[in-house]
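Q: Is it fine to ask for two folds in a single conversation?
A: Yes, each is treated on its own. Send the first.
Q: Here.
A: Result:
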Amino acid sequence: MRQLERVRVREATFRDLPHLVEAWGELARYHEQLDPGFALSRGWRQSYAAYVASLLGREDVCVVVAWAPGELAGMAVARMMLAPAFFRYRRRGYIQDVYTREPYRRQGIARRMVERLEAWLRTQGIRRVELTVALQNPTALAFWEDLGYRPYLQTFGKAL
């Protein structure tokens, strides 16, 4: 049996919280290498645990996990956002923190998590979804473009 067939994508629960924190830490450490703007604080574990705990169970957020037998293979988050009233299409989705752990990459797990998030957003009446991608991460850029996402804004940063 292929590893992918043994991986189950489902909504996260509070029991997943310690695993989500560890996986996000891996993702954050990777991004930290790309740009100092992603540097983690000393208390990042507690802060991220509190942040994710505040998302779980909310009606405007969907956190999914991909579980392989005995371990977390990946995670992803989608939120509903409300743009200012001067936009015609105010309700939007935002996808963040899509991460697949190293042994499970290139097996379609991230795609399955994103498809699950997109399906959830559709059931919420969302017709547009946005996300941000580190420009220094060509693998992620290719992944998102393969899923039909196209760049339309670019975020600039400057250390002061």
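Q: Second one now.
A: Result:
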Amino acid sequence: MNTRAITVLTKGNHVSRQSIEKLDLLLLVLETIDLNGIQSLYSLSNRLKLNDVLPNKVTIWKIRNNNPLRRSYMNNSIKSEEFDALIKITVEMSRYLYPYMREILQSKEDPKNNSAIWIDFNKRFIELINERFNINSMRVKKLLNQNGNDEILVKYLLTLSLCISDEGFQKLKNFLLYF
């Protein structure tokens, strides 16, 4: 009998750094598209009635700063409720921004007609990385390479696009925890 072991990236009621790193990068991609970024995240948390878990913008910021790639990295334990709340916000924001994500992905595939869209998206992403992440890290330097980060950005845009379905929350959670 052939069995595969799946490594669960949660320890008890806490989430691994790898999972929060992936989620934070997905949120950063959404912020790259939505210029109101953190305000939109907070508004969605209110609309989804997540005020108990995410009462304000500072709480969202503190949770996201558990990403080891961040300049202001804090090594706190993230509770699964906080992680789930951020996933719900990510899924909802992805639904809202899906037409823009689709346009960005199309511009990547058809550079002759739409290259300005992809270039602007990539530049804004790099600006946000420079502003918020530890640029001395080798992993961050890979994200800053405008030619090399295309594959990463396409992967994250596709991941966000696939989580807009009714089962989007569970799909995204599985991606973050198991892949």
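Q: Anything structural to flag on that second result?
A: Two points. The chain has a mean pLDDT of 89. The radius of gyration is 16 Å.
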